[in-house]
Amino acid sequence: MPGGQRLSGTPESVAQGRITVRMDGKETFKNAVNAMVSAANEAMRRCEIDITKIKCVIPHQANQRIISAVGERLGTTESSFRQTFTSTANTPPPRWRLP
After folding, report:
1. Considering only CA atoms, which of 64, 69, 45, 56 is closest in space to residue 98?
2. Residue 15: pLDDT above 90?
């Protein structure tokens, strides 16, 4: 059955169940972790540094499980990651002091 952007989102199409959004949580998690690890590794490669030289990481991600998995795969401690999504969504507080 077609859905998503193939059809106009009208009250009728929604009521008929023709407009739907589906997400595979495990696949989304895997893709997010892989993308963040890949991006971090590429940035470190370009800067010619390794994870031991990074004191603070502020990821733009609204899921603690993803942040934890990324930190684990990069080989760093979770304490080096800062998150504010529980209090301010993805926007850091204006007076946030970095280590």
Report:
1. 56
2. no
